[in-house]
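User: quick one, sequence for these C-alpha cells?
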C-alpha cells in the first residue's frame, strides 16, 4: 500500500552490501545510477544524505543521454532492448505493460491477478478497503479481460512522462 520498493529492495540492500564490504564515510563507494536525461528529476534524493558511505553519480545524465539515446547505443552494438526494471506485480505499470504481460506472459499476469486477489482477501479480513494494481479501481482480471478495449488515453497513461513521448 506504500511506494517503498525502491527504498526497501534497492537502496537499503545496496547500502548494506557496500557497508559490509568496506565502504565508509571516509572512503565512500561510488554508486552509478542509470537515470537518463528523461529522468533528471529523480536524480539526487534525501537518501543521499542518510548513507554517508556512498557517493552517487549519474553517468547517463552527465553524458547527456536520453532513454532513446541509450536504446540507440544498445541497438548499435546488437544487444536486445532491456525491459524497464519493475516487479511483475508493480502497481505503477502503465496499462500497456499490463496488456503486454497478459498477451505475452499470461502465467505471470495470472500470478499478478492472484496476488491482487490475496491482498484484497486479507484486507477484507481486517476490515480495510480493497486496493488495486491499476488506477482503474477494479481488479486486473476485470480491467484486462478478453475483449475489453481500453481507450488510447488509458493505454498511453504515463507514457509521455516516462520518456517515451511520441511528440
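Assistant:
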Amino acid at each position: 500500500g506504500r511506494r517503498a520498493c525502491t527504498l526497501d529492495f534497492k537502496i537499503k540492500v545496496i547500502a548494506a552490501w557496500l557497508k559490509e564490504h568496506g565502504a565508509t564515510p571516509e572512503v565512500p563507494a561510488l554508486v552509478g545510477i542509470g537515470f537518463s536525461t528523461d529522468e533528471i528529476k529523480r536524480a539526487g534524493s534525501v537518501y543521499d544524505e542518510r548513507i554517508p558511505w556512498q557517493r552517487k553519480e549519474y553517468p547517463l545524465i552527465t553524458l547527456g543521454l536520453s532513454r532513446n539515446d541509450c536504446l540507440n547505443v544498445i541497438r548499435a552494438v546488437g544487444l536486445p532492448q532491456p525491459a524497464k526494471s519493475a516487479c511483475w506485480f508493480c502497481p505503477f505499470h502503465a496499462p500497456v505493460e499490463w496488456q503486454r504481460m497478459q498477451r505475452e506472459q499470461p502465467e505471470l499476469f495470472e500470478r499478478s491477478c492472484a496476488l491482487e486477489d490475496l491482498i484484497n482477501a486479507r484486507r477484507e479480513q481486517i476490515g480495510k478497503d480493497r486496493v488495486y494494481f491499476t488506477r482503474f479501481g477494479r481488479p486486473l482480471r476485470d480491467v484486462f479481460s478478453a475483449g475489453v478495449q481500453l481507450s488510447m488515453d488509458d493505454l498511453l497513461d504515463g507514457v509521455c512522462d516516462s520518456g517515451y513521448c511520441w511528440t
